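In this supplementary section we document a worked example of the pipeline. Step one takes a protein sequence of length 78 as its only input; no multiple sequence alignment statistics are reported here. Step two produces a three-dimensional model, which step three serialises into structure tokens for compact storage. The input and output of this example are shown verbatim.
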Amino acid sequence: MHSEMCDALMELMKDELEDARNSGRDEGRSEGRNEGIRTLVETCRDLGVSKENTVFQLMTRYSLSQDAAQKSVNSYWK
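The serialised model returned by step three reads:
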């Protein structure tokens, strides 16, 4: 009987659990992408790549708009 109750509860919560899993996956991807952007900016800075070329790299590699790429450079270029 305990197993049947658990199965019934899981079935009732199926949509909510799927939404939570998808949300977690999307959040993880976003965090990974942001970490990659930060790492690229810092690496370009450390290697003496110009800010303009770094913006271009972000636009190319991450399909960012020029404005978004420039904001990333401004945020991470320290």
